[in-house]
Prior knowledge:
Blueprint: H1 5-24, H2 27-32, E1 34-41, E2 47-49, H3 51-61, E3 69-81, E4 84-94, E5 105-106, E6 109-115, E7 118-125, E8 128-129
Parallel strand pairs: 1-7
Antiparallel strand pairs: 1-2, 3-4, 4-6, 5-8, 6-7
Amino acid sequence: MSLTPETEEAVRTVVRDLQDAFNAKDADALGAVYSKDATWTNAMGARADGREAIAEAARRVFPVLADQFARYEVVRMLPIRDDVIAVTVHQEPVTRDGEPAGGPKGAPLYVISREEDGWKISAGSNMAVNS
């Protein structure tokens, strides 16, 4: 199964919107990229279920991460169905200006699906990577 250019761009837009929300420390925008019943597990193993819980978790953690920014690069898209794509992402710490900052990287895996309100993250987890 191959991806259409439109689907590929939609998936990249979801990842870009997630990156932008994280870097802006905008919990509402971050929550908006997740489906209503999504599940998310962060690199520390904490899980949040549902868009509102994911946004609330972001509200709690963003003050601690106020000076941390990241660049998200889509590494691979694996179509599960026409409307469900598994997406591997490389997450790199950057400065506010987008320059590499060093430190632990992330290796998130997102399941992005077409929902009634557009393409959204249905499930995801992050893993810290030290190289």
